[in-house]
Amino acid sequence: MISKTCPTCNTQYQPAPSKRLQTCPNCAHAAKYGETIFAKKWRKHAEKQRATPPKRYVIPSRSEKGKKKEAEIQAAKSKVKAQAKEGAFTQCGGCGGHFKSLDASHKVPVSQSAQLAASPENIRLLCRSCHEAWEHWRMPDLINLKCFLEDMEYLSRKDWPRFCRIYLLVLNYSAANPSQHIETVFESLTEIHNKKAAP
Which residues contact 113 (CB under 8 A, 6 or more apart)? Predict the structure, then answer.
């Protein structure tokens, strides 16, 4: 059967062969009930969505041990920030700039070592940009951090696999982007690597 297009609502419909007056079902429904078929479907859908809201993910509460560990980490961060405070500002260990507030960045991530998480020696105060460069190993910002070699020396003692991964990244970057600064940084890293790898 050939479908027709309603000139009023521009809806295609199949005309009923037994009726003399051929009307669009959408327009007929609107004339009888005050709303079109599509408007009724959308209204029903919206009512169903409001009646059953989506399930929300509930974050499980920490255990007593987890709460205690979190308190120890926060205490260590506060201690480091208090010691580094210079009046109203604190110096970033990466770029050397002075900021009112800095991130307490872990050299060895909390997920890697719970024992070092609350160690002040494992915490470095960095601005947001330097923190992201350290966390995401973002070249060339990573090797331009003033604390990069010092923190890498710490990693060589506390987290050797992480040190090796960063060392290989610097090796690949130095091969693709040769410069005097990168060569100097890589030579210093090689010295740290050889010192640790030596029997």
Answer: 122, 158, 159
